[in-house]
Write a structure and sequence with these properties.
The complex is a heterodimer. Chain A is an all-alpha fold. Chain A has 7 helices and no strands. In chain A, helix 3 packs antiparallel against helix 4, helix 3 packs antiparallel against helix 7 and helix 6 runs antiparallel to helix 7. The longest helix of chain A is centred in the N-terminal third of the chain and has 28 residues. Helix content of chain B is 79%, strand content 0%. In chain B, helix 2 crosses helix 4, helix 3 packs antiparallel against helix 7 and helix 6 runs antiparallel to helix 7. The chains are: A mainly alpha, B mainly alpha. Chains A and B meet through helix 3, helix 4 and helix 7 of A and helix 3, helix 4 and helix 7 of B.
């Protein structure tokens, strides 16, 4: 089965068909919740990454900020996943030929891997090396903003 | 000439200007500005949201309010500079159309109300925040935080509706 066949099967699945038949306002709500999810995730990453760069909430340790923001990141990712699926499933074939769509998910895959490995490790250290902390902060910001930026581009191409 | 007619004329001048035309007609300028508008939003509305969540006792509730508010202020203000300047460019790209959509002036009203709420909070509580106990915040402060979240949400909803109402 080629990827195109897979996307065809996704779009023609009963769930996708059902979503596609709903009022078009469902899509508008999904886009809104996609923005809400994005604000939770990106602003959380921003707060922790600024701290890694020695900026922003400097009185708190990075570990404290990770603990305070992690629930917002997971709630945000859940919102993004559900709203993203509502947008994607009934229109999978439209996304298939879109280069920016694939770029977004490549950046997202790297962002998630970095988040669950390097970012997780560095932000839990009591005393990580300043250069390591800064590079991690820059990488996290670059990757997550890259996901948002490329995501915003999809609709234009 | 009525006031509204002159507003329309100005909007048309902006739409026809070199700036407005080049943004509207460029393949990349419009999405790039949209992308920056979104990133500005995570700094501006995003950080405001987290400050409000602190005031409501949902985020960093054991940290004094001023320790959250003060260090984030320059970042969220920078975010607003980015959001407003990219917003102005997006507006210029099709000003004559936007001012005639009912949702656009409503979005501006919500932004103004959110701004007034923030200024009221600053003038009423800005200097006193130092004295607050970590947990016991005045009730009016919670109301201001709740109002802020509501109004900025309304701004985002109105903003997201603009393209839906533009291309009918």
């Amino acid at each position: 089965m080629s990827t195109l066949d897979l996307f065809n099967a996704i779009q023609n699945s009963p769930v996708s068909q059902w979503i596609g038949k709903q009022n078009h306002l469902l899509g508008a709500f999904a886009e809104l919740f996609h923005i809400v999810g994005l604000l939770f995730v990106l602003t959380s990453i921003l707060i922790v990454s600024l701290r890694l760069l020695g900026l922003g909430l400097r009185k708190q340790s990075t570990a404290q900020l990770v603990a305070a923001t992690s629930k917002f990141i997971w709630v945000g990712l859940a919102l993004l996943l559900v709203s993203g699926l509502i947008l994607f499933l009934p229109a999978a074939n439209n996304y298939y030929p879109n280069d920016i769509f694939w770029l977004k998910f490549k950046i997202l895959a790297i962002a998630l891997i970095v988040h669950l490995t390097v970012f997780r490790y560095v932000t839990r250290q009591a005393n990580s090396h300043a250069v390591v902390a800064k590079l991690t902060g820059i990488a996290a910001l670059g990757l997550w903003f890259g996901v948002a930026f490329s995501g915003r581009f999809i609709g234009f191409f | 000439m009525t006031l509204w007619a002159s507003v329309n004329d100005i909007a048309q001048l902006l739409t026809d200007s070199t700036l407005g035309t080049s943004i509207r007609e460029s393949v990349y300028a419009y999405p790039i500005i949209e992308g920056l508008h979104l990133i500005g939003l995570t700094f501006s509305v995003g950080l405001i949201l987290f400050v409000d969540l602190r005031l409501l006792g949902v985020f960093l509730r054991n940290v004094p309010v001023t320790d959250v508010l003060r260090p984030l202020r320059p970042w969220l203000l920078t975010g607003f500079v980015l959001t407003f300047s990219t917003g102005a460019l997006l507006f210029a790209s099709d000003a004559a159309k936007f001012i005639n959509l009912w949702i656009f002036p409503l979005k501006i009203v919500f932004i103004a109300l959110a701004g007034i709420n923030a200024l009221w909070f600053e003038s009423r509580w800005g200097a006193k925040a130092e004295q607050w106990q970590v947990f016991a915040l005045p009730k009016q402060v919670k109301i201001a935080a709740f109002t802020s979240i509501t109004l900025w949400s309304a701004v985002v909803v109105a903003g997201r509706l603009i393209p839906y109402l533009s291309y009918k």
